[in-house]
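Page 47, continued from p. 46.
Same chain as before, 322 aa.
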Amino acid sequence: MPVPAYNAFTRAMDRLNALDRGDRQPVRSETYSPEEFQQHPWPLRPGDYQVFRPRASTAVLILGTPPGLAPATFAGLDEVAMAGHLCTENIGIEYVVKNCLANPHLRQLALVGPDIPGHRPGDALLNLAANGVDKSGRIIGALGGRPMLMNLLPVEIEHFRAQIAVYDLMGATDPAGASKRITATILPAVPPFSQGLAVTLVEPSQAAPAKRLQLDPAGYFIILPRPGSANPLYVEHYKNDGRLAHIVEGPDAATLCAALLDLGLVTRLDHAGYLGRELTKAEASLSSGKKYVQDRAQGEIPRGSCLPTPSRSRATPPAAAP
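Result:
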């Protein structure tokens, strides 16, 4: 889909989603003083960043992944608390906001590197600080494809705008130049904000291994890497009675997954997840040179289930492979 058409489509979808957005209620919300900060987990959200001095006042955001700029580039700047990459104008900014609010010592954000065409996360963050969001959660004035903040409450947006000053240093694209501009632009010592804020909208759940293994009615697969071949991933598909039904080969895991799904050879979500995981492992073995061993799927087959042979399941043990 052409970019203008895609952007128009996403804007229409955003308007529809805004009708159902409503006022989300957090499952937990905490505020705490700068002195209490060390008693709380931080950063709250994972990401491609490095933490140097949690009580320093500045975070550096590298837009995208420009050559030569990395979080470690800014480790030697005393005023920098953390540095990381920002690549998207929606969820990426939500993570930045969450991590900033949770640390009242953070008061400044420095944007370095070139803004990313299409997404424009640097432009979006500057407009968030200057203009906020509209009722639908869209950043006012942002030019990116989908600058929607669907997972931040209004109180978080206003807290961020009051706490954080955003500096546009997007012309700085080399390590020495970026460090020099940061030192020359930001304030060296800014008092902490009055309080930190941590809002939880969704409580994480703990994943557990599957207890029950259900066979896919469509059958099972044997995966065989072939190093040096033009199509180094080779997959045999068997019916559950043991008959070979399909052979599919391809250059990489993504292509194989798409082909097997297009052929209708996977009918269960857990089987699709297993297949994607194993194909990725097989592809990795081609690069590393390590032997690929196909794992058995998690869970136990219920008693009374009819199996074609005692050894075969959706995930055939490696010993069964030819």
